[in-house]
Specification:
The structure is a homodimer.
Chain A: H1 7-19, E1 27-31, H2 33-42, E2 50-54, H3 65-71, H4 76-85, E3 91-94, H5 98-109, E4 119-126, E5 129-134, H6 144-162, E6 168-172, H7 183-194, E7 200-205, E8 217-219, H8 222-247, H9 251-259, H10 261-270, E9 276-280, E10 285-289, H11 295-310, H12 313-322
Parallel strand pairs in A: 1-2, 3-10, 5-8, 6-7, 6-8
Antiparallel strand pairs in A: 4-5, 4-9, 9-10
């Protein structure tokens, strides 16, 4: 029921995704049966592979996490996460309210391995593939222990999602010299460099390394991560609109753009990161699809969920976490309530 | 002598800039007379408007600020800043080592109005003009008082640089809700909103507002600012290279790009911010030109310096600072040594 478009996007996306996935993959759709039921029945190709679970209510896109926890029971989002807890689903996917999804997931699934809070991960395109970037907004205040946890979770996620045996991890800073940056960042750097986690740790990286391709995983606090991610999204949007204006300002430009249209489309696709990202650190798999996803993006998000469900990134996270000295685990200060 | 290209760029740039500036504007060139002298003598159009001041040494691009302070005396950078202190120049412009320029400027010119450290400002393009963005790397740890100082300095700078009587100021955060973000950010927000500074304060803004055009001045700490700036630069570089690859991948794209070349060039120019930025908060004007500036950019930087020298942004900063309750001024914690 979630996202900007609700069932009008989700149902065709499910049909599109399932047509390309093995028969062993099936879908539980949580939401208003009166809306979902007839639509599913109409599509014979879905026969037997999609089951509708009725939910009375939905979480509003503007509800605060605390509100969602109080009145979330019985909503489609709650049901979806509960199905993971009860082992009826391998992964839950939602395009709804991110803060509510995090809060409900944390309550129902609990954090794994003494972690404090889920981390939100973004995938950015780079010349070699994708950069895994975290945290992008779930944890505003982070001490060194939190940053080290992000490195562990991000590395395990990148390996599972992209099949890279030894992803290269970098820690975001304002310069590559040892003395720069916050104390928390320097402390995390010393620990990661010392090497007991057996991560492929490269050291400090800077903002332009996010799309540079020299590292696979970039770690930062949720404040810096959220600002950097949105700054890049804004810059990309601005560049596209300026490019469009420049190309339609005169006849030669317009003809040129028409000739180059397939190339420009490929360019646009190349810049689009995967439309779904997991919440890392939970006992169970929950993925967030971006709210504005259309049919093709949502279908892509379902395929991402299936791929990740086949991998064992949660297991890898837990294994990495066990290498941490116990003093470091769970020592993170309690972060402010409310993700982004 | 500074920047990636030294005199081979600076001298033609001076000639280019002066040809478009009134005769009352003249230039002091600090550096190796054996290199600069003959080049200047060769260019008759410069007659009487450029004077070479010999300096034995230069500051290396990799020297640490502390090193630059110890052995900086007698270098071209030191001379240039000293000329401002002695009233022989209205502004100093350098494409050299940023950290050294900040340290030498702070030592020789001192901070104005109890400010702690200079702030580094960046100009970003937006659909309506330019966004003034600070701090982009001079102050890694910032308390609320520092953020308020940045708002004051940024507003005064934007008014002076762009002639806008009431620039709109925003404070960078991860969301527009009151409870989000760091405590320092929320404290600065409460003070700015209360309104005793008489700034045109809009409230919290997010990363994509940097290039959105809804605000003119965006304030943040030097860690977040530096990461966001470099992330956007990296994203823009990545997009340009992807665009180029997409447009040369096949014949139609190549022909299209050739037809659209003037439009694409305009697009590129539109994305280029002014190549010089002042260090804000000093008793005297010092501007940093980006190290990779070519002839046209460097000439543009000289014109920016002349424009700013005619404005009274330092006076406006001081005036705004006087509106601050004395308890807030200079209460910033001592930031770590070494800018970016």
């Amino acid at each position: 029921m979630g996202g900007d478009h609700g069932p009008s996007v989700v149902i065709p996306a499910v049909a599109l995704a399932l047509s390309a996935l093995p028969q062993t993959v099936s879908v539980l759709l949580h939401g208003d049966e009166a809306v979902l039921g007839p639509e599913i029945a109409r599509r014979q190709a879905l026969g037997g592979r999609v089951e509708v679970r009725h939910a009375e209510r939905v979480i509003g896109m503007d509800e605060k996490p605390a509100q969602a926890l109080r009145r979330g029971k019985g909503t489609s989002m709650w049901h979806a996460v509960e199905a993971v807890r009860e082992g009826k689903a391998t992964a839950a996917l939602s395009a709804g309210n991110t803060g509510a999804l995090m809060a409900i997931s944390k309550l129902l699934l609990r954090m794994s391995a003494d972690l404090e809070r889920p981390a939100l991960v973004a995938s950015l395109p780079n010349p070699r593939g994708f950069t895994t970037f975290l945290d992008v907004g779930a944890n505003v205040d982070c001490d060194a222990a939190r940053l080290i946890e992000f490195a562990i979770m991000g590395e395990a996620f990148h390996r599972a999602a992209h099949g890279l045996p030894r992803p290269i991890v970098g820690l975001l800073n304002v310069g590559s010299e040892e003395m720069k940056g916050h104390e928390e960042v320097r402390e995390a750097h010393r620990f990661l460099r010392e090497g007991s986690l057996a991560l492929n740790y490269k050291g400090f990286v800077e903002g332009d390394d996010l799309t540079g391709g020299a590292v696979d995983v970039v770690v930062t606090d949720g404040f810096t991560g959220n600002v950097a991610l949105k700054a890049m999204e804004g810059a990309a949007r601005f560049m596209r609109s300026e490019l469009k204006m420049a190309l339609t300002a005169n006849l030669a430009g317009t003809i040129g753009a028409a000739l180059a249209r397939p190339s420009l489309r490929r360019f646009g696709e190349r810049l689009s990161p995967p439309p779904a990202a997991p919440l890392l650190g939970l006992n169970g798999m929950v993925l967030k699809c971006h709210g504005g996803a259309g049919e093709v993006d949502y279908a892509h998000a379902i395929r991402v969920a299936v791929d990740l469900a086949r991998s064992d990134f949660s297991g890898e996270i837990e294994q990495n976490m066990r290498r941490l000295p116990s003093a470091m685990v769970g020592s993170g200060q309690a972060p402010a309530e409310g993700g982004v």
